[in-house]
Design a protein that fits this description.
This protein folds into two domains: about 5-150, 2-Layer Sandwich (Mago nashi protein), CATH 3.30.1560; about 155-265, Sandwich (Immunoglobulin-like). It contains four helices and 17 strands. The protein has helices at about 5-15, 75-85, 130-145, 165-170, and strands at about 25-30, 40-45, 50-60, 65-75, 110-115, 120-125, 150, 155, 175-185, 185-195, 200-205, 205-210, 220, 225-230, 230-240, 245-255, 255-265. About 15% of the residues lie in helices and about 40% in strands. With about 270 residues, the chain is α+β, with helices and mostly antiparallel strands. Strands 6-5-1-2-3-4-7 form a seven-stranded antiparallel beta sheet. A five-stranded antiparallel beta sheet has the order 8-17-16-12-13, with no helix packed on it.
Amino acid sequence: MWLSDKIEDMIDNAKMKAGSKNPMTKFSYHYGGNMCGNFHTETVMPVDEKHARISISHADWHYETPKVSEYLTDIGIMDELEHVFHKHSMERWHGKKFTNMFVCDGESYGYEFKFGKAYISFYSQIYPKKYSEKLDELHEVVKKYLENAEKLPYLLAEEVKEEDGYKHYKPDDGKIRIEASRYAEGMLYHYIFNGTDEKTEYDRSVKIYREGEKEPFFSEEDKYHRTIYQHSSHEEYSKIPEQLSVGKYRLEMGEYSCEFEIVKDTEA
């Protein structure tokens, strides 16, 4: 298979061993694409010199509110994932076609790895056994570290039922409003809903306040406005530089605002 210079450079960078200038900075596994519009993602990233965060998001159907679970674990998980990657030379799997089989409306399973600026990825609906057995080693590493990981706080979101999904995301209540939807991988996701009969532009600038405080602890300016059409919704997100602690917050996006709460799950 012919490789561009850019891809060759990415592969060279990906071959760096643990402890070099380009150690693994992200591992991600995801699947989705069935007839119900499901998706599932698992991401592992370092948060500091001693810890990494495992983030798992899952939804069974297109309009479902994703369920997010995040865990704090030892940074050693990054070294072990990288070891498996190099052990099986997965940098050579970048963009690989694993099988000629295609299943209409079938799920695809993808893997992504980052090493500094290098980015290696591949996906397939089916992995032959000689590949799937090697990929299983990555999942065993994540499973092992999840056993003793600390469950992190999460955003308490409204659960959207399947039968209400279409109406929720294509509203007709005559209102324009925003709603915090999930908190994952350091990102706060929020929707703006336009339930009116007219399209409108909105300011995407964001401010976040802790309960009882007058000054925002986070602000993000955006000089560009975005159009949202009638009876539709857009999902926006902001990258928060600090882990949100348990408590109540107020989110402002332009002239619109909403409240949300970060809670701690007592389950292990």
